[in-house]
Please model this.
Amino acid sequence: MILMFLPVTCFSQKPKVDYLIFGVYCGECIGHCATMYKVEEEKIIVDTSNAYFWHNYWHNYPGRNDTALFTGCEGTNGLYLLAKPVMDSIPVSLLDSNLHSCTFGAPDSRDQCGIYLEISYNGKVKKFYIDTDTSDLPPWLLGYQALIKKTERQFYGTHWCK
Model:
């Protein structure tokens, strides 16, 4: 009888990611320069306002105070399912990092764009800036960076509001 309860009492569940924001931003562009996606509670919301770009590059750059405006333009369940692997595959190194902010490579330094990643995990918000060029990325981050880029490309041209 005691063995029946052992897995429940001895092993705790992996803490849940509260939300994930990801997207690609480009400093030298016209149109949607920083579309961001927020995945939470089995839904995905998009920000196509370029708020992230305008806030960082015109108001506070180089001091980052990342802002996206998720005004309720929710995607379909199919779009959520496309983004779910990005949430489910977050490298443990990012989740367990003691840093609240970290840059990998030199995102958008040569007009190659950059990836923005914000994770709310265990009550802490962590922000990461990842180069789209893989030459200066740690090997453990390469697959995840490629997944984010692939997912973002799948969303390109999607009509978001239900």
In short: The radius of gyration is 17 Å. Residues 15-155 form a domain with the Mago nashi protein fold (CATH 3.30.1560). The first helix runs from residue 2 to 10.
